[in-house]
Design a protein that fits this description.
The protein is built from seven helices and nine strands; from the N terminus they run βααβββββααβααβαβ. α5 crosses α6. The strands form two sheets. A seven-stranded antiparallel β-sheet has the order 1-6-5-4-7-9-8, sandwiched between helices. The protein has a two-stranded antiparallel ribbon with strand order 2-3.
Length: about 240
Amino acid sequence: MEKTKYRFIGASDQQRGVPQPPLEVPADPKKPVIDLPPPVSLDIPEKDLRTAIEQRQSIRHYAREPVTLDELSFLLWCTQGTKKVYGSQATFRTVPSAGARHAFETFLLLNNVDGLEPGLYRFLALSHRLQQLDIDPQLPHKVTEACFNQQFVLMSGAVFLWTAVPYRMTWRYGERGYRDLHLDAGHVCQNLYLAAEAVGCGVCAIAAFDDDIMDRLLGIDGESQFLIYLATVGKKEGDAPGY
């Protein structure tokens, strides 16, 4: 924290005239891509904001009912949805981000989503699509173990895994950008909590995970891209305890 204070920060790469990094990690041309229901087509029940805030709690017990594809599309839109793209310079999304840098990529471990094969996926936010990455049936167990055996990971309908591409942020803000990444993670996850209330889902944020193991499972290097936060999502049970 001390070294991210402004007095320790010199000129950023942006100030030096270095070209900015891409707005999104390119899709793997060898992996299948799946269209999601477009946000404008979704028929989502209205939910009063105050009610959603008052009802929000962390839920670790989920019904066996699958999350629908429409619900998944809605939750992805609410957490990283792209409202406008300004060429190769910036995106405006459904969550705030320092300097509109939006340094996150969203991975998904799908356990019980109607119409989608269980496995690891990535959300392609600029085109609102999914890319299937891995359908290893052991992945849910490996992710659960990497989250120190929190069993609700295994029982959830989906796990949202947000990775940070730090250079997207530090290109403009230098080392100070590492603070912004963690602030942005909070914005994204809170949107997931509140949006889930509209579709009868519960959420539980997770900060306890083995960084190195999780990065390996996601196929990222842990330096130029690393896991910063994750959260489980599942349909609520009638008497699901929360906090």
